[in-house]
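The passage that follows is intended for readers who have already worked through the single-chain material. We present the inputs for a multi-component assembly, then the predicted structure in tokenized form, and finally a short commentary. You are encouraged to pause after the input and sketch how you expect the pieces to fit together before reading on.
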Amino acid sequence: SQQGEEDPQALSIQEGENATMNCSYKTSINNLQWYRQNSGRGLVHLILIRSNEREKHSGRLRVTLDTSKKSSSLLITASRAADTASYFCATDGGGSNYKLTFGKGTLLTVNP
Amino acid sequence: GAGVSQSPSNKVTEKGKDVELRCDPISGHTALYWYRQSLGQGLEFLIYFQGNSAPDKSGLPSDRFSAERTGGSVSTLTIQRTQQEDSAVYLCASSLATATATNEKLFFGSGTQLSVL
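Having made your guess, compare it with the prediction:
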């Protein structure tokens, strides 16, 4: 079963705008990760945030984590056409359950 | 190689045939996952290997699916008597995660596109 669920399912924006994607999950976690997928093949790791962290930055990416609401958001600032991809959150099951499960993803389209 | 390697990249088979999909993880990675992704969908967890521990097979959809990991390295996913609903991209990933160090990112292969006719 899916642990994380991304929202929205699809997002279309113009180049230069910011894109925000959300992820909700069901159980406690050790960490939450965001991945990007181009062309339906291999995923690439973007950023990892630990359960005791609230915010993390990496370049144009900003991730927040609210463990009380079991939710996370991924913000891409100043988007580019090359950011067009599907974005997935992945969570473990907390404690010693470190199996990573993925949501269904958000398809982001950045129009030039 | 430096990354996770999967072979074949594409496989077309007839319904009822058996197929074997191979994954070469990054050297030294103790954790290995198989996921399945149908067109336009998320990643469905299939099986997880961690070091010498018994694999977590809880995601395998039926007893037609099995996987092995030999010598803690190469893994093979076998699908017996393939059905059309098995058509999907099969993704393998590995990481340095261990039982006590779980905050590790996954490195994915490019996947095997399986088409069952």
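Commentary: Chain A touches chain B at residues 2, 30-31, 33, 35, 40-45, 48, 50, 88, 90, 92, 96, 98-105 (CB under 8 Å). The CA atoms of residues 18 and 77 of chain A lie 4 Å apart. How closely did your sketch match?
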